[in-house]
Queue: 2 jobs
Job 1
Amino acid sequence: MAGAPDHLFNLRNNFYLGAYQAAINTSDLPNLSPDDAVERDSFVYRSYIALGSYQLVINEIDAAAATPLQAVKLLALYLSSPENKESTILSLKEWLADSTIANNVILRLIAGIIFMHEEDYNEALKHTNAGGTMELHALNVQIFLKMHRSDYAEKQLRIMQQTDEDHTLTQLATAWLNLAVGGSKIQEAYLIFQDFSEKYPMTGLILNGKADAKDPETLANLVVCSLHIGKSSSRYLSQLKLSHPDHVLVKRASSAEDNFERAVQEMHDSMAPYVTKFPREAFQNYRDLDIGSSPSNQTNFEEAKEYGLKYFKGNFLRLVKVKGMVDPDNLFKHEQSIPPPLLLSVSLAANSDPSLDNFLQCLPNNSLPSYPISEAIYTTSSPSFESVLLKYINNRRFLTPETPKPLAIVTALHESHVQATVVCAKSHGLQVRIRSGGHDYEGLSYVSEVPFVILDMFNLRSIDIDLSSETAWVQAGATLGEIYYNIANKSNVHAFPAGVCPTVGAGGHISGGGYGTMMRKYGLSVDNVIDAKIVDVNGNVLDRETMGEDLFWAIRGGGGASFGVILSWKIHLVRVPAKVTVFKVDRTLEEGATDIFYQWQQVSTELDKELFIRAMPQVANGSVEGTKTIRISFYGLFLGRSEALLSMMNKRFPKLGLQQSDCIEMRWIESTLFWFDLPNGTSIDVLLDRPRGAQVFFKSKSDYVNRIVPKEDLERIWKMMIKAEPMWMQWNPIGGRMSEIADTATPFPHRAGYLFKLQYSINWSEEGSEATDRYISLIREMHDSMAPYVTKFPREAFQNYRDLDIGSSPSNQTNFEEAKEYGLKYFKGNFLRLVKVKGMVDPDNFFKHEQSIPPRWI
Ligand SMILES: Cc1cc2nc3c(=O)[nH]c(=O)nc-3n(C[C@H](O)[C@H](O)[C@H](O)COP(=O)(O)OP(=O)(O)OC[C@H]3O[C@@H](n4cnc5c(N)ncnc54)[C@H](O)[C@@H]3O)c2cc1C
């Protein structure tokens, strides 16, 4: 009604000018009509959204709320969880198709905002173009400017001016257009922001606007203020000199500035020992361009990091993220402004490799702006490049100066970063090495002979457990220790069958099969995977249903890195008793170890599934000084109490002489520490420790045994081991559940009919290639001499115990004949099915490494 008081004027204005907290604070308005109350609430909730409080909005707006508020909730949902954005957009489209609400102005506005975010400007305009409110017109201006159609933006502005020339949005839209047009129009934009700053409390939006539209008097003021507070004014003066060389201040200051600046700088330098370091922090309100700046027509990320970390420390990255959300084209900028992540490309222009430059520039365009990928990228010029690279290298063999280094590392923070890395590496000819826990025995997750980037998954590590269905979704970057810990936190009687080392990553471990101490009861990790999410070669995120059973089969044991990037696994949790029993019994040759080991061979694969006994022979000092012997450690896990264990052992494996005093009852989670050789009583918190980088050099190899080794041959093996010291072996019994699962059920074929999985390993700490060659020769000789006792034609091997000695293809191609060498050893007949699946999902062989699956038979 004309002339009626507009109760919402201040609230709206605060919102338009970016004073979101003030908008919330002034929203307590009595006696509003129902419509005004809804409008008020929509501004309040939009303010919360602008402040990042999405969840509050989602929680407070319930299903009974009016359409405009439901629309605002959709915006909160869209911005808060990009992984659900498709379903949010689907709901939005359903609403827009409903003729009873499709014309609601707030719904149309939100539709415009969401589609503008999606960079689907035509779709956005479908809903906003008809106008209807000043906000819709203002949004049209923004959309047209994004489309670089300032002519259309101007037309919209004219409509706004005709409707209400003094409206805050009309003024703002005028300033946006002026800034976009540039030249002398910038001064006009400045005056608009100046006017706002005089009328209203200062907000980031006004400040940024003013700073962007710089004029000589602003610069002169900055010079004077800087001098006044004892800070350097050189940058403002040089700007003033360039733009207005005849300004009186330029003339007066030029003679004094050199001396003044030197004095200030010296004073500042001499204070260094007494103030904060790394970074030397600063207060943003005491602006100081000496601490770093970007040229004013661009905002270079690396330069901005210089001053950004000093002013804001870790908060700088969040500011970059917010900037990317609200001003992705960097309209509002100055020498120390916050760069949007998009401008990362500018900072990387210095990289010499053109394919890398193109790759880096491609990344932001293929990932969600709300998760700035810039925060995830490390190039060789990034200060943390080396520490990020080294943290997940597990073997010092791949830490030498000669080891090829990646051109960049993308430490994905969101699945869209994985998608972007795949799409951009593919389109710019770079190889990708995927790393989750970095435990690959041959370093294939972080080393390649051809130009490559590492896609590092360690940040994607969430673990989401649902006890009611006894399942969990675990992301690839989670470690086994984290999975075990999180399960135990929820339940004492659930577990997951996987490996012994807690820092191994779920991404590589599970896709390579994953065996552990519960294999005889529950099979391998892959036998307990019921779904997975993967990014395929086209950058699509697929789950079991959308990837199809062939690909789902292949990634459960065939090695994920040949087929795509595993984002997460849905695992089935298995049941364990509240108390389990563990033991470790050592016996030397003098104590009858050969007889014991011989009996162990006969019984260990036939015992109850609940019992797993690993035998670990290694060289030790003999009882006579200067002699060597073999000490065999028998490690056991029994999924039950010690009494039942002892009774079984006395009957079936009496030679070991297991005593009650050898047995320790504990929770299953504690048994994972026991198997990692941690002292009894160690806190389970150690399971959360992340890798600490490579501690030793090592080389490992594997074998499968399908017939019992006679005693006399055991004696021979011990002699060979003494020659190969410090090499050690682990013999792991199969049988139980493993024999019940068909050898074609997953790519892992070593099931029924197999007795033991062998691992050989040798560790050393001496630097240099001579030592490396020597130790590797020792383990190779030992492996060669074991040939009579292990599988033949092919001599099989375990994929998770990667060993390039058994065959490899050069890393920029995958030759079928070469691949057959290692492929048949790892997968037997399943190799051919893997080749077929590879041909279906990655026919151009983008995902490759020295032991990957080739896409065809040539
Ligand atoms: C100390 C130690 C103990 C071990 N104990 C066991 C054990 O008890 N049982 C067992 O089965 N194995 C064991 N392993 C072997 C281990 O399971 C494998 O090395 C496994 O591949 C490591 O996975 P990762 O993610 O840590 O390694 P990474 O080096 O990150 O990856 C290994 C391989 O998987 C690929 N990959 C990694 N992440 C992904 C992904 N997200 N998508 C697609 N491909 C990916 C890599 O490109 C690489 O080819 C052990 C290894 C070590 C070093």
Note: The chain has four domains: 9-205, 351-456, 463-575, 580-806.
Job 2
Amino acid sequence: QDLYQEAEDTLMLNASVIGYYSGSHSLALVKGTTLVELQTEKVIVATGASEKMLLFENNDLPGVYGAGAVQTLMNVYGIKPGHNMLMVGAGNVGLIVSYQLLQAGVNVEAVVEAMPHIGGYHVHAAKIRRCGVPIYTSTSIQKALGEEYVTGAVTISLDENWNPIRGTEKEYTVDTICLAVGLSPSVELFHQAGCRLAYIPELGGNTPVHNQNMETTLPGVYAAGDAAGIGEANTAMMEGKIAALSCINTLELSTDETVKELEESFRELHLLRSGTFGERARQGKEKVFTLWREHHE
Ligand SMILES: Cc1cc2nc3c(=O)[nH]c(=O)nc-3n(C[C@H](O)[C@H](O)[C@H](O)COP(=O)(O)OP(=O)(O)OC[C@H]3O[C@@H](n4cnc5c(N)ncnc54)[C@H](O)[C@@H]3O)c2cc1C
């Protein structure tokens, strides 16, 4: 209860940071109709990510959703997003959300994936296949059908250069199309602050260049979580902890305990990213750390 009260006192909810002004780490934020200026010594930007969109005919029809929206409708609001669904993307998000849709009683007609192989973990793919959902690789969506809302979808096979192969179109009667085609870090505030950004495909696109302490190229501005490169919830929380402890230590508030905790957090993050599943993220992070070092040479 005490911790909750403490958090309530510190958290400012329904408040959007709309600008960062360099020099004094000054943030402008909007809460309701009020514009608030906040002066800080350090800033940790953990703004998350936005979902990628696909270009195809009728992609603006009601019934075309991002996977995040589908998951929020089901898990937060208890609303079935549709009755018959086509899932686009067989990464972990596409596979896991497909399974959750099945659990909610939605019929998932098929999962299509542009790559020649399934991007997500085998265990998630196997689970939905066992439920009778086919996964078609080297296949993408060509168009959504419908006048006022989605009534169907047409998929098409892709060749090794990702060009559509005519004559391979397949029509589905669906009322919902779910796009699970990746995320991009939300880097607007870093950009506005003047932090160096770099295009790192392994981390989802434009990413703030940062070091192992999560500090960007602008001293005092830190990045954490998906905003610092797309990952998953555990690594996001661990990066947030590292950024916070690094701030504490450089504000000369450090104690033996915070120094020890920081070391422990590095170890835990390393463990979370070890093994083959963490390989892509490791490669991406190595790139941003190298860029950060080069920036400071
Ligand atoms: C559909 C989907 C399913 C997923 N499933 C899993 C899963 O099963 N397991 C897993 O580990 N990971 C999963 N992930 C990934 C996981 O959600 C993210 O890695 C994790 O949420 C990242 O945490 P974060 O704190 O960096 O960002 P977020 O959780 O995105 O939080 C960012 C927060 O910043 C706020 N914000 C943004 N801009 C501003 C601003 N200017 N001012 C104030 N606030 C702002 C946002 O409102 C948001 O609350 C999934 C992702 C998606 C899209």
Note: The mean pLDDT is 95.
